[in-house]
Amino acid sequence: MGIRVKLQRDRHTALYRHIAEEFRTRIARGELPPGTRLPTVRALAREVGTTRLTIHNAYRELQADGLIESVVGRGTFVSPQARPAAQPSLGERLEPDLVLSDLHRLQHARALHNLALATADPALFPYEAFWACLEGLKPLAREVFGYGSVMGEPELRVALSELLEQRGIEADPQEVLVTVGGLQGLALVCRALAEPGEEVLLEEPTYLGLLGILKQFRLKPLPVPLDAEGPRLEVLEALLKRHRPRFYYTIPSYHNPTGLRFCQERLRRLLALAQAHGFTLVEDDTLGCLSYEKTPPTPLYALAQRLGAGSQVVHLASLSKVLMPGLRIGYLLAPEALLERFTALHNVSDITGPPPLLQRAAAQFIRQGSLKQHLKQVLPIYQRRRDALLQALSRHMPAGVHWSRPEGGFSCWVSLPRLFSTLELHRQALARGVAITPGEAFLVRSDEAMHFRLCFGAEGAEGLEEGVKELARLIRARQKV
Amino acid sequence: MGIRVKLQRDRHTALYRHIAEEFRTRIARGELPPGTRLPTVRALAREVGTTRLTIHNAYRELQADGLIESVVGRGTFVSPQARPAAQPSLGERLEPDLVLSDLHRLQHARALHNLALATADPALFPYEAFWACLEGLKPLAREVFGYGSVMGEPELRVALSELLEQRGIEADPQEVLVTVGGLQGLALVCRALAEPGEEVLLEEPTYLGLLGILKQFRLKPLPVPLDAEGPRLEVLEALLKRHRPRFYYTIPSYHNPTGLRFCQERLRRLLALAQAHGFTLVEDDTLGCLSYEKTPPTPLYALAQRLGAGSQVVHLASLSKVLMPGLRIGYLLAPEALLERFTALHNVSDITGPPPLLQRAAAQFIRQGSLKQHLKQVLPIYQRRRDALLQALSRHMPAGVHWSRPEGGFSCWVSLPRLFSTLELHRQALARGVAITPGEAFLVRSDEAMHFRLCFGAEGAEGLEEGVKELARLIRARQKV
Q1: Spatial separation of the C-alpha atoms in residues A365 and B215, rounded to whole Å
Q2: DSSP structure class, residue B297
Q3: A150 and B101: CB-CB below 8 Å?
Q4: A366-392: pLDDT as tens digits
Q5: What secondary structure letter does DSSP report for B152?
Q6: Calpha distance A407→A410 (Å, rounded)
Q7: Does A148 touch chain B (CB under 8 A)?
Q8: Residue A159 neighbours by CB distance under 10 Å
Q9: Are residues B187 and B220 in the same domain?
């Protein structure tokens, strides 16, 4: 077999990863179906012009991913179980948890225009500055490789309380609990606030990670639709007449997936409803700092504090979108009684949260002002990408297609007239090298209209333009049928 | 107030941490009761002979821990809520989850002889070699700060499968799931294998982390007592007549807290019972590599594979005890059908496990042979500490006191005739600067006899000798009453 490995080496990626990637992409495209025999290590090393160790490492990586397998005395083959890596499981109904893990797998398929993942661009990560913070900890190695503190490293909790202050929130370091990424914090809160079988309010569409958690813990979602100003409270009020939900999960600052910013008046009324009906508001502020506006939105938590209703709100956030997801650092802020419950639950299965080394480096990074500086550098870039995406949509999309105009965050919500299934567009787009997130992943019930999410964080203007053009072509082709 | 800060600076710990520690210890001892005014930053900096920034940082750390608070215009005070940090909550019954978090808090109180925590000695951590592995990843920064792979980094899964091979287990990298520490893996397995209200078998005493998880998930423990060779299977058989447990949690290789190594014949019969009654065996092998014997024990998983019963066993392990806990790297190996269930559950609340940076560094560390070399260096040291502990026990303990003779791991189980409550000895010992783990933390039911665990991993021979001497003095004093 002639494998042509593109040697577009960038200095950040090891050659063996490139080679593994090439195979992964070909397996995903169906070019190398299950059972295909791969070249021997020796033959491929000669062909690519590298060492056998490099090929060996590439094969090991593919083997670890379950894509290939060695049969003693016979050679190396594409696994019978090798599912195309870039394809989500094509069941009847798209499972939010599968979408999430499939999307993360997608990330590694670099051949794609990836408009599917609401993530920051790795090319813009502040490696140098962060690495310097890591290196500064070398003399403290004994501490940072030990168990660390139960609620998170004190230094980080101090830094995070300062970060929260910048969001208009008065937070004591003692009120901050560090979690393993934002998702673990969300799972913790869901488990602590509701029992299996109980009901939970959420916006529709909502963060797909939440839907996976609810399913896992058997919590029943009560969806509240959105309009341009936020959740439609008349629907919420009607629901509250017949239900006793435990909490309301909300993303008021650059809602995911729509990119909406909820208006203050709506939030004030939401807060009043929560107080009157005795349910907790769980605010997800993961994207609140990623603002392309002159005045970033005031978090619900800050509003509640000002109105003396701070005990009604839990505030969730993370460094994954504003800094780097590989730190696995999330955090939450909660009134004392709830925080105790969260901490007790957290201690049982995690002891100390993310590695102290990374917590301490992040603390230093924030406290020396590097996060502020980083955001100052990247926000204009993301804003330009947002603009490029919106322009491409205006330029290419046929009439009848609508989309949101995000003022922050990484995502844009596109709605089509009913034409063909979400899954079908998703699949066709993938086959043409464009990844989107199908709208069903964000919805409790399937919807008459058709939606999908486009993310502009990790693609440059050119990729966005090409991706949108391709999507528009697929939609037009369908319209003609 | 004259605060005398001991300037025993070791180069691994920042001065401000020493200062914070000094305050923490004094608050814990009750020397600085709630409401005590602390010196101003300026005054203390002058007294200690350091910068104001250092004192500021120490105060911030104490503030983050909730031990002190500043009142604008008045000064800094010990918090009204400042619970003595080194004291577990002294309820009627010792809650395992509280013990665990209290013990971890204890770790930071360096004034103590810490015989309470079954951890490796931070002074023996292989910093230099590990840091070199970290630095080797700097050119790959873009990858290692991104989201990483869903089941763990392929490199690490390959390295772990090699590690498992050394334990006599045939493991494909695809069968390995990386978790956030061993505890998260255990929580995952418990949740996946049993529903709230269902029954679970375990050894008594058992790992205290398990008891916390069972309580949290409302699983009912069915304890099986131990003798010198392992679990008493006639008790297990009797239980199986009346119950249908979902799984059996076992620690066959250097059982925690007793240090026992279960004999092969017992394991073989256990496996047969699991097959006959259709329950899964969950093997915790966290300490299996920490062997002071010529031949380390064969894991249950390896035995099952040889007997064609591999689908009956889940194997849990971690790098926390054999390498460093601050990596937060655990892993598990399971038959395909179960692994799928674990992975689905894992993805919902964690996406990618521990930070890719540390996963990749650990992979490199293992694959270049540094872990093997590290164990070769430290095992003789831990063995000498074990010997020192056993000698001290023989030398000082009065008649009627019995203890186990661990051939691996970090802990020794001491039994006294009924004299006074576990909590009382625990409290008295703490007051004299010796930390032990009270036996109740490992037991489902309170016991007639009195037990406690002594750990020798993190204390030198001298500390062990002094600690045991003090404990013996307390026991003798009580016997005379």
Answers
A1: 39
A2: P
A3: yes
A4: 999 999 999 999 999 999 999 999 999
A5: S
A6: 9
A7: yes
A8: 25
A9: yes
Compute the distance between CA of residue B99 and CA of residue B89 in angstroms, rounded to an integer. 8
Asked if B368 has any chain A CB less than 8 Å from its own CB, the reply is no
Euclidean distance between CA atoms A305 and A312, whole angstroms: 9
End-to-end CA distance of chain A: 40
- What are the pLDDT digits (tens) for A310-365? 899 999 999 999 999 999 999 999 998 899 899 888 888 776 789 999 999 999 99
Judge: A213–B358 Cβ closer than 8 Å, yes or no: no
* Minimal C-alpha gap between A151 and chain B (Å): 9
In a domain, A84, yes or no: no
Strand partners, B402: B415
pLDDT band at B447, cuts 50/70/90?
Answer: low
Domain's final residue, options A369, A384, A419: A369
Mutate to test the interface with B, among A100, A142, A160, A359 (most CBs of B within 10 A): A142
Residue A20 forms beta bridges with which residues?
Answer: none
Query: Do A279 and A355 belong together in one domain?
Result: yes
Q: Within an 8 Å CB–CB cutoff, is residue A120 touching chain B?
A: no
Rounded to the nearest angstrom, the gap between the alpha carbon of residue A370 and the centroid of all alpha carbons in its chain is 23
Q: How far is A231 from chain B (nearest CA, A)?
A: 25
Q: Based on the domain organization, do A228 and A266 belong to the same domain?
A: yes
Q: Based on the domain organization, do A68 and A141 belong to the same domain?
A: no
CATH at B411: 3.90.1150.10
Contacts of A435 (CB under 8 A, 6+ apart): A86, A103, A106, A112, A113, A114, A115, A116, A117, A429
Distance CA A94, CA A116 (A): 15
HSE of B115, CA atoms in CB hemisphere, 13 A = 36
Considering the domain architecture, whether residues A263 and A352 belong to the same structural domain is answered as yes
**Max alpha carbon distance in chain B (Å)?**
73
Q: Which of residues 247-266 of B touch A (CB under 8 A)?
A: none
Which residue range is the domain that position B405 belongs to? 96-124+373-480
Q: Tell me: the pLDDT tens digits for A57-115? A: 888 888 887 788 887 667 888 887 665 433 333 333 455 555 655 665 555 554 578 89
Find the mean pLDDT for residues B338-363: 88
A174 chain-B contacts, CB cut-off 8 A: 63-66
| Cross-chain residue pair B101–A351, CB shorter than 8 Å | yes
> Nearest-CA residue of chain B relative to A179?
B350
- The verdict on residue B84 lying in a domain is no
Task: Write the residue in A97, A123, A351 that is nearest to B142 by C-beta.
Answer: A123
DSSP β-ladder status, B176-180 and B113-114: unpaired
Among A99-103, A231-235, B391-395, B436-440, name the one with the lowest average pLDDT: A99-103
Q: Does A2 reside within a domain?
A: no
User: Given CB atoms, is B122 within the 8 Å cutoff of chain A?
Assistant: yes
**For residue B370, what are the contacts with CB-CB under 8 A and spacing of at least 6?**
B126, B129, B130, B133
User: From start to end of B152-207, where are the E strands?
Assistant: 176-180, 199-204
Same-domain pairing of A188 and A329: yes
CATH (domain of A275)? 3.40.640.10
Question: Which residues on neighbouring strands pair with residue A37, listed in sequence order?
Answer: A77
**Boundary residue ending a domain (A334, A369, A404):** A369
Number of domains in chain A: 3
pTM above 0.80, yes or no: yes
Q: Which of A14, A107, A351 sits opposite B183 (nearest CB)?
A: A351
Lookup: tokens for A243: 């239900």
The pLDDT of residue A447: 67
- Domain shared by A112 and A146, yes or no: no
Do B132 and B120 reside in the same domain of the chain?
no
For position A34, which CATH number holds?
1.10.10.10
Q: Is B212 on the interface with A (CB under 8 A)?
A: yes
Is B72 an 8 Å CB contact of chain A?
no
Q: A49 in a domain, yes or no?
A: yes
State the smallest CA–CA distance between residue A475 and chain B in angstroms.
31
